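Title: Comparing notes on inverse folding

I've been comparing how different people in this forum approach sequence design from structure. To keep things fair, I'm posting one structure and asking everyone to reply with a full sequence. Here's the target:
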């Protein structure tokens, strides 16, 4: 224990002892009651044969090389984010190409990207650069709208062996995204009132991809609804205000 902490502890004990001697039982420590007995997890069905493979394929642990996209000097900040989205569109035609593709409008809206000033019809969101993989170089976290629906694509790209690699891919109805250390945290609305889903994707240096490490539903409390202004009858406008209103388009 550090010296200053030991001195503080001794002084506190002395002061408490003096107070107890001068004031009797007043202000003394009181018991909070019996502590609940801790119970260990009960293992169910010990004779059940453990499953050897998942029942369905999780959207987890997949890495994909973005064909035709290069990062000069291994710097992702020199890569056009729109080029990454167009590479994904080309590599996944079932999702984007054709009149029945679920994200067909995203393809059309990509024509508005890369213009100055920025066109609000472009589905790309602001790119963020941060070292997520721990190699000392900034990785790219990119988001774009999946239209005509209401989902948002969240992607993470890094550079491995001179190639641009997509190490995370998540599509969801997103209400918020955070970067924390080696993780990307995605907030999504829930069907239950006052709850939300929270997904945490974390970089795994062994698999060299982002893995879904946490999947939970959290209570976020009651959401305040904005109060509607009361309908109060207003006085009739004066002739001067009427004239100025009619003159102003």
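Reply #1:
Here's my take.
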């Amino acid at each position: 224990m550090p010296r200053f902490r030991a001195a503080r502890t001794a002084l506190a004990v002395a002061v408490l002892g003096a107070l107890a001697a001068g004031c009797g039982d007043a202000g003394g420590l009181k018991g909070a009651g019996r502590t609940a007995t801790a119970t260990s997890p009960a293992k169910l069905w010990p004779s059940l044969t453990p499953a050897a493979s998942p029942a369905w394929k999780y959207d987890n642990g997949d890495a994909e090389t973005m064909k035709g996209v290069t990062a000069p000097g291994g710097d992702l900040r020199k890569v056009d984010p729109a080029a990454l989205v167009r590479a994904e569109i080309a590599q996944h035609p079932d999702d984007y190409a054709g009149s029945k593709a679920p994200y067909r409008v995203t393809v059309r809206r990509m024509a508005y990207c890369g213009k100055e000033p920025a066109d609000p019809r472009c589905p790309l969101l602001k790119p963020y650069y941060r070292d997520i993989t721990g190699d000392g170089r900034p990785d790219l976290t990119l988001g774009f709208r999946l239209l005509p629906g209401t989902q948002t694509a969240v992607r993470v790209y890094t550079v491995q062996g001179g190639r641009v690699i997509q190490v995370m891919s998540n599509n969801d109805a997103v209400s918020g995204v955070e970067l924390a250390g080696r993780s990307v945290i995605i907030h999504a609305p829930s069907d239950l009132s006052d709850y939300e889903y929270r997904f945490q994707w974390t970089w795994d240096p062994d698999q060299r991809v982002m893995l879904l490490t946490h999947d939970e539903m959290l209570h976020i409390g009651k959401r305040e609804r904005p109060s509607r202004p009361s309908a109060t009858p207003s006085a009739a406008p004066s002739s001067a205000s009427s004239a100025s209103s009619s003159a102003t388009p």
